[in-house]
Write a structure and sequence with these properties.
The protein is mainly α. It has one domain (15-248). It is built from 11 helices and 2 strands; from the N terminus they run ααααββααααααα. The protein has helices at 2-8, 16-30, 34-37, 39-59, 88-112, 118-135, 140-159, 164-185, 195-203, 207-232, 237-256, and strands spanning 62-69, 77-83.
Length: 257
């Protein structure tokens, strides 16, 4: 696997790994078995979503009690909190924090690449996962799943080597963003318990309006982070395409010789 990644993305073009991770992320979502391949990433995104809501709840004077991850096909979850005061503002903040927080984390991971902070970000994720498992993972599955994710990322930090570690990092960042974007699509169904409906009841505008706002903000954050990451590496799409074609031509020429 390491040799394959080195062939795909030589050291002078590490940004190619980001394109590969993005393409693989999109491909896995359309394949019949893809949802099971990305299941660990789905659990990670659910954790990010619920933790963002839980932390937002604490910021608006609600009490975050526990985080629940469910062992179902959708890797669903729930942040349980108690409203210490009836606050329309607090309700809107908490409901919005899940989807936007997930996308912003993925975008922040991509931006961290521009400062070569991938290992530091992974270390912080390990600490956060372990912390939430110990203090908020009140069900057996939640506790085990969160510690397993923390262990997997810790192993990547300690034993991972480039380009493998960079590729997995890019894959996690893309999956966090894309998973959040795909989840936002479900808000248009008008489910009475969805975050968009909760905000709609608090601010009177229809649920699809808030879903559209979140979708637009998430798309802007994701695409902007990719653009900045590529610009920081001195990459443009056209030169990348020409470089890949040239590599194929050189390879064929070498075989003919």
């Amino acid at each position: 696997m390491k040799q394959l990644l080195e062939r795909i993305a030589p050291k002078n073009r590490p940004h190619v790994l980001l394109f590969v991770a993005l393409g693989l992320s999109l491909l896995l979502w359309v394949l019949p078995f893809g949802k099971w391949v990305v299941y660990p990433f789905s659990l990670l995104v659910t954790w990010v979503h619920e933790m963002c809501q839980g932390l937002a709840a604490e910021c608006v004077n609600f009490h975050f009690e526990k985080l629940i991850l469910r062992p179902d096909a959708k890797a669903s979850g729930e942040a349980m909190f108690v409203k210490l005061a009836d606050s329309r503002f607090g309700t809107v903040v908490v409901a919005s924090a899940g989807y936007l927080g997930s996308t912003l984390l993925g975008a922040a991971m991509l931006l961290a690449k521009t400062r070569k902070k991938e290992v530091a970000v992974l270390e912080w994720l390990v600490v956060a996962l372990a912390f939430s498992a110990l203090f908020y993972g009140r069900t057996f599955f939640s506790f085990v799943a969160l510690l397993s994710l923390a262990g997997a990322l810790a192993l990547l930090v300690v034993k991972g080597v480039d380009p493998w570690r960079t590729f997995v990092y890019d894959l996690v960042a893309c999956q966090v963003c894309l998973n959040a974007l795909l989840d936002i699509r479900t808000l248009y169904s008008g489910d009475s318990g969805s975050d968009a409906m909760i905000v709609s009841r608090a601010l009177f505008l229809p649920h699809w309006f808030w879903a559209s706002i979140w979708l637009a903000m998430s798309l802007a954050a994701f695409s902007g982070a990719i653009y900045v990451a590529l610009r920081a590496s001195g990459t443009r799409l056209a030169p990348v395409a020409r470089g890949i074609v040239q590599d194929n031509v050189d390879a064929k020429s070498s075989k003919q010789e």
